[in-house]
Amino acid sequence: MNISVGISDWKISKPPDVLVTYALGSCVGICLYDKTKLIGGLSHIMLPDSKNCGDGLATNRMKFADTAIPDMFGKMLSMGALRANVTAKIAGGAVMFNVATDRFNIGERNVAAVKAALGALGIRVIAQDVGLNYGRTVFFYPESGAVKIKSTTKGEVGI
Description:
Layout: E1 2-4, E2 9-13, E3 18-24, E4 28-34, E5 39-45, H1 65-78, E6 86-92, H2 106-120, E7 124-130, E8 136-141, E9 146-151, E10 155-158
Parallel strand pairs: 1-3, 6-7
Antiparallel strand pairs: 2-5, 3-8, 4-5, 4-6, 8-9, 9-10
Helix pairs in contact: 1-2
């Protein structure tokens, strides 16, 4: 069964389910996987950092790389995943519009924040499909750890 992961959302699953997130532009999809326990999590983050948001925008912890990733990882551990066995694959972080400065390149900032959050948790990124200027849809298979990425401009690739 396909389990849909929305924007600013994450889900955890075991086989035979497939986790799917649609329309990653500047957002980043993070697939965490424990190959020994066959536990997989998919997060669709929208922004890099919860600390720079005012007016209560940080109430949805699933929106931000610095909060969504540790939360999802913690839930996976509580379900039996082993910290030392968890690896990551990431996709997205595109530049969807012409940007005048790096400050406004949210895709690049999202990728950097995702890598920083994963690094802080000791999770290795073993594959990625990030950057460039096109959207992506991610299919994550916890049965094998395979990630299939579809886009209208690049077709289908696996990472």
